[in-house]
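Q: My labmate handed me this sequence with no annotations at all. I'd like to see what the chain might look like in three dimensions before we decide whether it's worth expressing. Could you predict it?
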Amino acid sequence: MTTSCTPIPQDNDAPTSCCQPADVTVWWWDIPTGTYDPADLPLLDGAERERLQRLRTPESKAIYVTCRAAVRRILSGALQVAPEELEFGRLPCPGCASPEHGPPTVLRPATDLRISITHTTGLGMLAVAPVPVGVDAEGAKNLDVEELARPTLTPEERQYVLSRPPGEERTRAFLRCWTRKEAVLKAVGIGITVELNTLETGPASEGPVTVAAGVEGGPAEWAVRQIPAPEGWSAALALPAGTRPNLRVRKWPTG
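A: Here is what I predict for the chain of 255 residues:
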């Protein structure tokens, strides 16, 4: 979805990066196909249940319920409150101050932790950090990489991706670019307000790579890295450039 922002004045003295160690945890979970655990449904609040009723397919309902319940259970442990007591909302958009499309946040209980959520068919992820954070995951399904490359990749990225052998290797290179771009945009918190083919993600590098994207008063550069994901998926994490993360990637539930 493309979101339009009219920039607001920013404090030019605001910090643009974090140069301190940061404990960052990324949780991932499986999403069942076409169904969800009935025990997850009572965890959703009224607004979440209303949104669930608007979803049309069993697959979209399974993704939504499973992800909302997983996020609530994970943050319940981190914040020491019952899952049902958590209240979610959005921070004001850093580009235009709108409360409608800023980055997701925990409204209750009060916390300085930042979160980012992503889901795709079969997989969900939650990143939790003390600094702005973005996470994205995509499945390595059949993609028309040649068709997608022009509107989404820079010239340098297209050259690299299309030089890879067709098939799995080319798809993997494309998804490295795509997930890095999406992770950065989620971390910035303004939605897709820039052309994707202007964000250079250095796919030839295993990373972390530095990606320039931001708004005045926020981080201008982001350190982006691929993170472990189950076979068949590609995932990336974005943090303010200069952050030294103590990174853990964990499966939920851990058993």
